[in-house]
């Protein structure tokens, strides 16, 4: 907890860093029950990593287990990890990289790092955008820690290199179908098929006591399975299903079935035959479900998705999945969540192609309808930043979970996000409209929780689909959603281009909702980049349209943007009115995100007019809401506002602490615009506490960032701050240059507060050089502006003029 800072007048402001999300320090899958075999490999692995676990190795220990699919790599590594878990007190993490997961996209290193960072307590919005930045943050957070990290199913060296911690005492266990010989410092362990005696031991463990009485048949089966653990396990499971069968019966069937199926990617016909025999153990309706599960594009599914695919009831879906689970054809890694092993998924996908195409398409359509319908229902409980998602035009699913509040909506969207992404990709490949609807439904969720790069990818996918099917309204709405995310990431040029395109399309097709959304998005970009005239015009147009439509979310967004614009252009009374109206609307809508933003907007107006007590109260309320919502982006903005208030009231120590908190969060988020704003504040504080050299360096950093992101308002303010510091030194000429540059920018963007500050600086410079008339003229012009906009700087300039009159 940061020490509280007191403002003049008895108003207290308490700052605290955002509470991190809960950590997931132990994410290893359950150990394999009855693990048998691999005695030598396990002993070698445990012996090799003992030094790392005991901290005797001065670098991270990396061990990679390679071998063919189904060879038991993951089982061995997870089993070893459970043996070693107690030696790594800072956590045991498991990441499925899915380099060979059928029908699922590979988890790229950036996405894997995002998962690791979130598991370590980093909020989604605090995770940097770039791979290098994420890798650096991950290595930094692992400093002085002892963790065990399992990276399962890696594609190659490049897939895992960014994920490696650097701290000595950490252990990384990797599984891959490739030998990672180029990975620096790696110790390789290659898995081959099981030795015959261990294969027999595995079959007996899985099949039970009956296998002990037919050793010859057991040897035949393990040989026909190619001594591959997965095939052996599946074949042994059949004895539990067929209580009257003998081991010899299964061996005979397997022998006869060896040439019945086309070979899998491994090229081993006996393995394929084992899968086929397990499939034929099923009843016809279970076989149909097995094939339809092969159509599912995501990593796992629940009973609702199963019911949609198989066009059945929830009870029937649950019973069917339990039957497949009993036959070891699926697993249940979490309660009610089912998934295939990758090789069985391949087999299911192959079998799915044997159904008539119309049946396949109908099953996929039902699944997409389910995901789209439920995602849309969930989105209705989240704050909207564009017009609410309209109902779908295709049938709703027969069964869908009940979602009645924002917490349930967030839980469902978070849990199903990988499936929704996979469904979007599949829908886009087939030009299905769900590729547009699902990203739109996810918009508010991803805006609040991230990752923003995924949101951009989904909106690009939706845009490509909308263009392919020539759906112009959908193009417009998708462009607006894309622009909103791009503005969050600081890509203002792209955000402006896409919001303008959205506006053009919406106007062309007479879509008022689309026009209002695009105008609000465009105004937000213009306000952020200092185009206040354009922002005011577009915000007012959006407000007018939303009022006619009765669209209160859009009205609130437009009013808030207008409040920022009017504050920047000196109309503080109107700015306060608009901010209060936005706050009232958000309160009526029950939108805490919007309430926090509006409170901060109101606090900034009150700060500009010198009402510091009210400003502090509203800023603290905004900060409390952002912390409750887990919104670090909003926390950084509001902390900067609080720091400005503390500086204005002379509480410099508290201002320095608060500004540093804001800077830390902004840097973690990777938002350059936010960093520039906070550096500007921090420079002011450093000057106030008597460190002008550091202050100028800090302000120069802010100035460079404002230039890079294209914010002229920020440039003008920072130039004025630098000029003011130079006035207190011997470099008066430099001060005059800074004030003159600030004056030019301020007049160009119509920012009267900055214009007045620049005129005051130029006037002071002229007076110090003996040019009294010129100096007084500039001071009087500055005073006229300050009186017009009701600036608290009025008193200071009046005092300066009075001193000259004396």
Sum up the structure in keywords.
806 residues, mainly alpha, disordered N terminus
Describe the fold and architecture.
With 806 residues, the chain is mostly helical. It is built from 35 helices and nine strands. The strands form three sheets. Strands 4-5-6-3-7 form a five-stranded parallel sheet, with helices on both faces. It has a two-stranded antiparallel sheet with strand order 1-2. The chain has a two-stranded antiparallel ribbon with strand order 8-9. Helix 1 packs across helix 2 and helix 22 runs antiparallel to helix 23.
Content of β-strand: under 5%
Sheet with the most strands, sense and barrel status:
5 strands, parallel
Tell me the helix content: 55-70%
Pairing-aware structural class of the strands and helices? mainly alpha
Describe the SSE topology.
Layout: E1 5-6, E2 12-13, H1 39-53, E3 61-66, H2 73-84, E4 92-96, H3 109-119, H4 131-141, E5 148-154, H5 157-160, E6 171-176, E7 186-190, H6 196-207, H7 215-224, H8 229-241, H9 247-256, H10 269-280, H11 284-293, H12 303-310, H13 314-326, E8 331-334, E9 337-339, H14 342-352, H15 357-379, H16 406-429, H17 434-449, H18 452-468, H19 472-488, H20 492-508, H21 512-528, H22 532-549, H23 552-568, H24 572-589, H25 592-608, H26 612-629, H27 632-648, H28 652-669, H29 672-688, H30 692-709, H31 712-727, H32 732-749, H33 752-768, H34 772-789, H35 794-805
Helix pairs in contact: 1-2, 3-4, 6-7, 6-8, 7-9, 8-10, 11-14, 12-13, 12-15, 15-16, 15-17, 16-17, 16-18, 17-18, 17-19, 18-19, 19-20, 19-21, 20-21, 21-22, 21-23, 22-23, 23-24, 23-25, 24-25, 25-26, 25-27, 26-27, 27-28, 27-29, 28-29, 29-30, 29-31, 30-31, 31-32, 31-33, 32-33, 33-34, 34-35
């Amino acid at each position: 907890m940061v020490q509280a800072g007191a403002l003049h007048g008895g108003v207290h402001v308490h700052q605290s860093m955002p509470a991190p999300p809960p950590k997931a320090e132990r994410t290893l899958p359950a150990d394999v029950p009855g693990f048998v075999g691999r005695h030598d490999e396990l002993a070698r692995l445990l012996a090799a990593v003992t030094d790392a676990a005991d901290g005797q190795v001065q670098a991270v220990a990396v061990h990679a287990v390679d071998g063919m699919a189904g060879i038991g790599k993951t089982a061995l590594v997870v089993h070893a990890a459970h043996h070693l878990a107690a030696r790594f007190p800072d956590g045991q993490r498991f990441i499925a990289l899915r380099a060979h997961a059928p029908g699922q996209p590979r988890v790229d290193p950036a996405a894997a790092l995002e998962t690791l960072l979130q598991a370590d307590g980093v909020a989604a919005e605090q995770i940097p955008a770039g791979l290098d930045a994420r890798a650096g943050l991950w290595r930094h957070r692992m400093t002085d820690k002892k963790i065990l990290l399992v990276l399962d199913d890696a594609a190659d060296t490049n897939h895992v290199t960014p994920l490696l911690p650097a701290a000595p005492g950490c252990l990384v266990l990797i599984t891959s179908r490739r030998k990672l010989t180029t990975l620096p410092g790696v110790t390789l362990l290659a898995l081959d098929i099981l030795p015959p005696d261990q294969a027999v031991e595995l079959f007996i463990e899985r099949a039970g006591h009956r296998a002990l009485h037919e050793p010859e048949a057991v040897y035949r089966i393990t040989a026909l399975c190619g001594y591959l653990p997965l095939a052996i396990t599946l074949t042994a499971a059949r004895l539990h299903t067929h209580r009257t069968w003998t081991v010899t019966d299964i061996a005979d069937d397997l022998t006869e079935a060896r040439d019945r199926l086309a070979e899998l990617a491994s090229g081993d016909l006996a393995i394929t035959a084992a899968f086929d025999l397990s499939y034929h153990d099923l009843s016809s309706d279970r076989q149909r479900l097995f094939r339809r599960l092969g159509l599912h594009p995501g990593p796992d599914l629940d009973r609702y998705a199963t019911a949609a695919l198989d066009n059945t009831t929830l009870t029937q879906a649950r019973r069917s999945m339990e039957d497949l689970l009993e036959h070891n054809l699926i697993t249940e890694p979490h309660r009610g969540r089912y998934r295939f092993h990758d090789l069985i998924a391949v087999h299911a996908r192959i079998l799915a192609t044997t159904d008539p195409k119309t049946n396949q398409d109908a099953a996929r359509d039902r699944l997409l309808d389910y995901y789209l319908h439920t995602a849309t229902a969930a989105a209705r409980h989240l704050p909207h930043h564009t017009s609410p998602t309209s109902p779908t035009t295709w049938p709703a699913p027969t069964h869908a979970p009940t979602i009645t509040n924002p917490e349930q909506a967030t839980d469902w969207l978070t849990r199903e996000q990988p499936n929704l992404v996979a469904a979007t990709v599949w829908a886009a490949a087939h030009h299905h409209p769900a590729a547009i609807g699902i990203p739109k439904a996810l918009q508010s969720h991803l805006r609040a929780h991230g990752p923003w790069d995924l949101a951009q990818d989904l909106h690009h996918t939706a845009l490509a689909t909308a263009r392919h099917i020539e759906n112009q309204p959908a193009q417009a709405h998708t462009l607006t959603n894309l622009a909103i995310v791009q503005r969050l990431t600081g890509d203002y040029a792209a955000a402006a281009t896409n919001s303008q395109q959205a506006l053009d399309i919406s106007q062309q097709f007479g879509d008022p909702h689309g026009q209002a959304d695009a105008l609000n998005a465009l105004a937000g970009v213009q306000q952020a980049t200092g185009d206040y005239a354009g922002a005011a015009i577009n915000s007012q147009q959006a407000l007018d349209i939303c009022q006619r439509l009765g669209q209160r979310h859009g009205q609130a967004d437009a009013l808030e943007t207008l409040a920022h614009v009017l504050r920047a252009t000196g109309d503080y009374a109107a700015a306060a009115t608009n901010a209060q109206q936005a706050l009232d609307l958000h309160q009526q809508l029950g939108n805490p995100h919007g309430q926090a933003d509006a409170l901060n907007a109101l606090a900034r107006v009150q700060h500009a007019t010198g009402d510091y007590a009210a400003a502090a109260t509203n800023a603290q309320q905004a900060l409390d809401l952002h912390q409750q919502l887990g919104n670090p982006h909003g926390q950084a903005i509001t902390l900067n506002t609080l720091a400005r208030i503390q500086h204005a009231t002379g509480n410099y120590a508290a201002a320095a602490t608060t500004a540093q908190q804001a800077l830390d969060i902004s840097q973690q988020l990777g938002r350059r615009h936010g960093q520039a704003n906070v550096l500007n504040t921090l420079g002011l504080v450093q000057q106030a506490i008597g460190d002008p050299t550091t202050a100028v360096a800090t302000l120069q950093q802010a100035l460079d960032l404002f230039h890079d992101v294209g914010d002229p308002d920020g440039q003008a303010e920072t130039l004025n701050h630098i000029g003011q510091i130079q006035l207190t030194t011997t470099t008066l000429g430099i001060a005059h240059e800074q004030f003159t540059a600030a004056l030019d920018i301020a007049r160009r963007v119509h920012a009267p507060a900055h214009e007045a500050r620049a005129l005051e600086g130029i006037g002071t410079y002229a007076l110090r050089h003996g040019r009294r008339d010129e100096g007084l003229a500039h001071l009087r012009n500055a005073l006229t502006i300050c009186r017009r906009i009701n600036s608290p700087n009025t008193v200071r300039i009046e005092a300066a003029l009075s001193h000259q009159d004396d």
